[in-house]
Each structure stands twice: as C-alpha cells, then as structure tokens.
Amino acid sequence: MEMSNFTENQMTVRDAIGKICDNFPNEYWQEKDRTETDPKELHAALAADGWLGIALPEDFGGAGLGISEATMMLQTITQSGAGMAGAQSIHANVYATQPLAKFGNQEQLSSTIPDIISGKTRVCFGVTEPNTGLDTLRLKTTALKSSDGNSYSVTGQKIWITCAQVAKKMILLARTTPLEEVTKPNEGLSMFCIDLDRNAPGLDMRKIRKMGGNAVDANEVFFDNYQIPANTLIGKEGQGFKIILHGMNAERCLLAGEALGIGYAAIEKAAKYAKERVVFGRPIGQNQSIQHPLAECYMHLEAAKLSTYHAARLYDNSKDDKSITQYAVGVAANAAKYLAAEAAYKACETSVMSHGGMGYAREYDVERYLREIFVPRIAPVSREMIKSFVAEKVLGLPRSY
C-alpha cells in the first residue's frame, strides 16, 4: 500500500500494531481457523498495550484517537495475515463502544470503559434479528420496563452476534415502545449496555457454523424475560436508533479498512508466488495474463483506500466541524465500505487464481482470505442496500425499500 499523506498518528499506529501482529504468524491463524478457537492471545496482546481503547476517552484510560486511527489499526491487523478473524476479535470493542462513550452517563463509563480497555471485558453488539434483517426500525426484541421502574424484561432473538460466547457485555438495541404506538418508525427503540449472565434464566446462545472467520464465534442469542437493571439504559429511552447511528458510520469505516487489509495481503501473496513459480522455463509473473489482473486489483484497492480514509476523516472531523453533516458522513462511509469490500473481494479471487491449484491449498492462506472477504461484502449492510441508499439520498431517486 502507498503510505504517502497519512498522519503521524496513523503511521505510529500502523508501526506499533504491525510489531504486535508479527508475533502471530500465518500458522497461528491457520490453526485457529482449523480448530475454531478464539484468538484470545491477540486480544490480550492488544489490550496489554492499551490498543483496545484507541478511540475511547482519555479520561477512562483510552487513547482518545479517532476512527481514522482505529481504521488503520484494523487494516494493519487484517493485512498481517490475521484476516477478518483477527479484526473481528476486537471489532466490537472499537465501534460498539462509540455510542456508549458518547451517550453513556458517568457511572456507566467509569464502570465499563476501563475494563474494556484492559481486556477484562469483551463486548458484542446485539442489533440484527432473523426476521427483520436490515429493517432495523421493525426489530421485534422488546425491553419492557417493570412497574417499579427498576428493571427491564428483555424478550426476543438476535442473530449473527460475533464473539457472544466470550463477551461479558452486549450493546443491545431493543424496542421499549411498540411500533404501532410511536409517531415515527425510528422512535421507541432504546439502547442498553447489559451483562451477559449465562447462569441467569432467560438467556441462551447457539453458535452458527459458517464459511470463514472460524476463529471467532457467531451466534443466535435468545432472550426470554431476561432481566436487566434500568441503569443499563444508554441515553434516553426511545432514542436508541439515533444513538446507534453514531456507531454505524464508524463500523462502515472500520470494515472498509479491514477489507483493504485482506485485499493488500492477498495481492502481496500473489505477487510473491508469481515471481517464484516457474512454468515453461519462466516465472508466471512474467506473463501479462498474471500481471495485468494483479495490477488492476492493486489500483482498485488504492482508490478504495482514498475513499476509506476520507470517510474516516469526515467522521472524526464532524465532531468539531459543524459544516460536516451526518448526511455527508453517511454517504462517504457507505461508499467506502462498498468500494473497499468489492476491491478486496476481486483481489482475493485474483490471488487464488494466480496461485493456480495451490490457491486451493490451505497452506498458502489465500483460500482463507477468499472465504473471509465475503463478510465485509455482506455486513453490516449489503451492497444492494448501499446502492439504494446512494440512489435515494444522493441522486434523488424514489425510495425503493
């Protein structure tokens, strides 16, 4: 990746994270993928140096940096060979905590943020549901307040919850007012920071077997009158959707960076193999049929890189520069996620094909990259939804969903 024009902070992050990741070679990730074992050692190493708090407030032990630096951190992790599994092991600790850091009260912040940064507490994000998918405003999980006002009873189901098996906390979005009783669809949702007490009644988790990223767990989470204290509410009741938007744009930037990292790693692997693999008395990299697709992939990644860090910069600067609207941030973040995921997917596919038969072998890693790169193409929002969003919000075309 061309490194010109990055900030000193971003370069410092890249160097420091790169040194940590050097201790986790490809063989480590191959084994974690094969055995479906959580990469707790990477999580611990990043926590030991304070990196889990990269974008959290300094008052609570965080680094106080921005999503621009966090994006660089996650790109560096995936690019090291860790892939999406490495990034997803800490992903929610970075972006899911953004709404908490902005809207949580002093007691919530002081009791949770330091433990997240130290690695004592891992976090997962509970939004997606099996029957609503991307239609977040119609989610079914309810949080009903008790008559004495001291607790809520949570009932419903969440799906594709990453790291729920190892998390102690969940940032949960649930409906506190029925949809038919609100004036606008985006009202009546509330956000909570809850404990995942596996010994308490009303909580059940089931792992989902999946295609890639096998080192981190993905889950269905079931709530059946699961009791949570009233003081777990983040911000005001009924304002959860507005609060969650603060984390969604951040997540798009982070996923774009993660995709870029895998894409660059795949191209680097392919170029190395093409220089070493000799067929018909010459390295295959001498053939334009190998050269040109790899060169094209690199250029697409570079273009997506510019979009990604532009979006992250807008996100960070919008906190102080009121001329930067959330509309502008949303368009930039969605576009970056789309472009990076598509460029990285093509890079991973091209890398596998450039390796020929060996691209299908696990020892060369590129098949793992290809399996994992589907994640940023699908989540947290599909390619098609991003296109519809841009068509409506930017081009002024009729709403299609």
TrEMBL record:
Domain Acyl-CoA dehydrogenase/oxidase C-terminal per the UniProt entry, residue ranges: 238-394
Molecular function per GO: acyl-CoA dehydrogenase activity; flavin adenine dinucleotide binding
Top-level taxon: Eukaryota
Domain (Acyl-CoA dehydrogenase/oxidase N-terminal) ranges: 7-120
Similarity annotation: Belongs to the acyl-CoA dehydrogenase family.
PANTHER family according to UniProt: DEHYDROGENASE, PUTATIVE (AFU_ORTHOLOGUE AFUA_7G06510)-RELATED, MEDIUM-CHAIN SPECIFIC ACYL-COA DEHYDROGENASE, MITOCHONDRIAL-RELATED
Protein name: Acyl-CoA dehydrogenase fadE12
Upper classification of the organism: Eukaryota, Fungi, Dikarya, Ascomycota, Pezizomycotina
